[in-house]
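Working notes for the structural subgroup meeting. M.R. asked for a predicted model of this chain before we commit to crystallization trials. I am recording the input and output together here so anyone reviewing the notebook later can reproduce the run.

Input as submitted:
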Amino acid sequence: MEQIFQVHWEKVFDLAFKKLGDETLAQDMTQEIFISLWEKRKKLDLTGNLSGYLYGAVKNRVIDYYRSISIKDGHQAEYAMLMDQKREIAPDEHLIFQDTAKEVEAVMQLLPERMRLVISMSREQDKTVKEIAAELNVSVQTVKNQITSAMKILRDNLSYLLLIVFFWL
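Returned structure, recorded in token form:
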């Protein structure tokens, strides 16, 4: 299993990342696929093309993910429509949104300069990991590590905002 993981992990991750556009989600999905492979190892007959099986596993998980997001978005839209029909954003809500943007920017300033640059290129300039790596003359893995670390810092420092938004809206 270790050898299979070493040989195929990057391909599975790259495919998931390409389809999802979210590194953390792609890492989680990749890990789930290999865990599932391990759990089903006695039942599976993989004498054929393992790459094909893994490609199919990514494809199916991505479809399931988007299907669940679509259902969730549909419920959220219905809920918003019921709770907030033709409601305009109040001036105090504009202030909250502005304050939230300032909080996010303040936490972004806490990031090391290089990490902040990578996040900016990824999120604001919409560049791929490979494009960022080429432009900064670093490895793709370095860029992935920088994005993962930055997102963890942002989540750790801004998690309280989710509670505020949840209770406010």
